[in-house]
Specification:
Layout (H helix, E strand, L loop, with lengths): L22 E3 L3 E4 L6 H10 L22 H13 L7 E6 L4 E11 L4 E8 L9 H16 L4 E7 L3 H9 L3 E12 L2 E11 H8 L5
Parallel strand pairs: 5-6
Antiparallel strand pairs: 1-2, 2-3, 3-4, 4-5, 6-8, 7-8
Length: 212
Amino acid sequence: MKKKNSGSFFADLSADHSAAATILEGDRVTLRSVTPDDYRELYDLEYGSEDRAWTDWDAPYYKDEEKQETFEEFAQGYEKMKEAKLHWEPRLLIETKEGVMLGVVTSYWEHKPSNWLEAGIVLYRSGTWSRGCGTEALRLYVGYLFARLDVPRVGITTWSGNERMMRAAARIGMRIEGRMRRCRIVRGELYDSIRMGVLREEWEALHGSSER
């Protein structure tokens, strides 16, 4: 199988994100930096849209514990990320090629001292599911993370009822690394907690080198 060059997806990998935006181009979607002009639409997608199907799949076991942010809190969260001047972006916007906002990809340190990095994705518009948009967005972002950060592995955490997420992760090369049985309750039913991940060398064997 021909290796894909992950680096070809990066329109900009400047270390100073305050000066230049990150743009990752795919065939179906574009990932880009979130700007202040995006805050209102992104906030409305997450909290104000009538399409709430995504909440049934994005860690629904935490639903009762979560508090809705105000718009000001939401915007301040993004501004704080910018002020941190990190050398990678923990959150990028997902858009169609026509510029329609779909959702976000995210990353966070599970345990920074040991370089344990986790990624995530949410598509707010359920009408765009099962069209390859999420799989491509996740592939672009994981390649970006390997290119930006000196990490040996990138993983995701989900639950066994979210088969769509598990399939997307498997398609880009992740494998199930852990299954904690019957420890998630969703709509009164017990499910497994799932850990999936891919090592740098496995990623590069599938997609080509991720140069930092």
